[in-house]
Amino acid sequence: MQPRRVAVLGGGPGGLYAARLLKLANPACEVRVHEQGGADTTFGFGVGLAAGTQRRLAAADPDTLRELVATGLRHDSTMQVGGRVARVRNDRLIGIARTDLLAVLQRHAEKAGVELGFGVRRSAAELDADVVIAADGVSSATRASGGFGGRIETGRGLYLWCGTDFPLDDAVFAPVETEHGVFVTHAYPYSGGRSTFLVETDERTWRRAGFDATTAATGPEDSDQTSLRYLEQVFAGQLRGRPLIGNRTRWLRFRTVRCDRWSQGNTVLLGDAAHTAHFSVGSGTKLAMEDAIALVDALREAPDAGTAFDRYEAARRPWVERLQELARRSQLWWESFPSRLGLPVERLMVAYMSRAGNVPLDRFARTSPDVVGAALRQYGDDGPGTDDLVDRIIGTPLVHGARSFPDRTAVPALPRLHADLHDPWSPEGDALVARARGTDGVLITGPDDRPALLTRLDLAERVRCETGVLTAVQGTAGLRDDLAAGLISGRTDLVALTEESA
Hints:
Blueprint: E1 5-9, H1 13-25, E2 30-35, E3 46-49, H2 51-60, H3 62-71, E4 73-74, E5 77-81, E6 84-88, E7 94-97, H4 98-112, E8 115-118, E9 131-134, H5 141-144, E10 150-154, E11 158-164, E12 171-177, E13 182-190, E14 194-201, H6 203-208, H7 211-217, H8 225-234, H9 236-239, E15 244-245, E16 255-259, E17 263-264, E18 267-269, H10 284-301, H11 305-335, H12 345-353, H13 361-367, H14 369-379, H15 389-395, E19 398-400, E20 403-405, E21 416-418, H16 427-436, E22 441-445, H17 450-467, E23 470-476, H18 480-488, E24 494-498
Protein name: FAD-binding domain-containing protein
Keywords: NAD, Oxidoreductase
Pfam families: FAD_binding_3
């Protein structure tokens, strides 16, 4: 279709990018962005653009990507635990200041002929347009107005976003134990000589530190200065004695947004307005800009708006839901992170990379052989024998208390714990952990499919960490890679291989 007039609600990355692509695809169309904030007003710090996202942006709009890459800052990733560091190389990952990102997108939108309006709040209902793109964020007023079947799930853990006035050498994942509990930072450098510094903790630690009270006392326009000053001391090593910078910084719980429908009438949702995925998979800007590409493609090819919206949703929803599932697993992993601090840093890095089931162990071993090699030695592999990584892991002997096992498939007769659940840290998971406590060990069984196996491995890790009993997980031979990743990551002690049921 060739709309005459398109209105975009929200001047974030997704809205600006959609506006530019629309104008490039249909120069005769009037495209206007309505942003309630000022042109120079933004919240947050740096944004990460991974290699896959850059490839998609290159195909859709190489001019914009070229400037983003030139503006951004490339960095590797490190895990820092107890004075030891594990490093992972990243070929094309860049960090860019959110202000720089928006400035680039604003310039390129205006260059294409998009009209930008700032400082006035608009609603979809009041706009005279053939198509209204609602890119108005996680708190979308458009979604809240109804008709989209929106739902929000709130996470258990707490986090806050802040920044530093200097660039870290690399992205840093670092837990620190305090008198109240464990705080962990995800921090990374970005353009402009600064770094994003995100901190997570669990509710018990948050309350012990008194941050429930400081959160309640922090106004909506303010930053929680008490928390910032405390965290400066907690992460003094990573901060090199420098301060933390706030920008409406307060403790939050992550909100996962899902919608039954992404369009209603002439209005279509884009980015966080339609869906969110936990920040630990670096997804917000990625999803919004990739949504923009798919939406503009659908509008270009479809005969009318309704058909275009249906095609857009059909193309994007499977990708979004897949990423949301990966993000859900990653979120659960981070919310239970303190239980893993007994692992050496290299094994912890392997656990981190395999936490959502998205990074195959053999691929990670090819890109980071030093990390995986150290993790194998810590796990107990002595090096000689087969070159097949999975065989080596599964074939490694185990000593557990007074018992010895020649390899990780030598599962003794153990009580079975059948698990068919969505969340290992739910009340149902609590009950299964309680049943395992005080036994000589458990064999955790369940459905054959891969998602169920990944959940069993998470439950097994919880059983291992909280009870100390010997833990085995049943899985089909076709999922040996996932079972091996679970073994080296400390999620289970043994694995029981079965044939896949008919």
